[in-house]
Design brief:
By secondary structure, the protein is an all-alpha fold.
Length: 131
């Protein structure tokens, strides 16, 4: 059962994209491609169409990653319930080992926040399915 996102959640996602430089990176990439396309005689509108679709796909992939995370949490809760080492089990070990001390702390806090939201969503869905 897919949960609809609130306006606030969409705003948070947009803010994250802004903070991460998502749009600046695309602007640079599009500008470079427009220059290259012009040299090769390709229509600028085709380049813009391509990048518009690419942005949509990237945003959807980001949303799917959060859904993948939720599915991991859901599976953990279904099989073992709430466990004390949930964050350890959900941590991407390879990624974690490459981070600096500060980045590890940030990663752990973000993972904890995502986990708590996923547990809340799980409980809401479970309550809806029981009734």
């Amino acid at each position: 059962m897919a949960e609809l996102k609130s306006f606030k959640e969409y705003c948070k996602e947009a803010k994250r994209r802004l903070k991460s430089g998502f749009w600046q990176n695309y602007q640079k990439e599009v500008e470079n491609e427009l220059i290259r396309a012009e040299k090769q005689g390709i229509s600028k509108s085709k380049v813009k169409e391509y990048y518009t679709e690419k942005v949509r796909e990237d945003i959807l992939q980001t949303e799917n990653k959060s859904d993948d995370f939720y599915l991991k949490v859901k599976n953990l809760l279904d099989t073992e319930g709430e466990v004390g080492d949930a964050l350890g089990r959900l941590t991407d070990k390879e990624k974690y080992e490459k981070l600096s001390y500060e980045e590890k702390q940030r990663y752990s806090l973000e993972l904890s926040e995502r986990y708590l939201k996923a547990v809340e969503r799980y409980k809401k869905e479970k309550a809806l399915n029981v009734n």
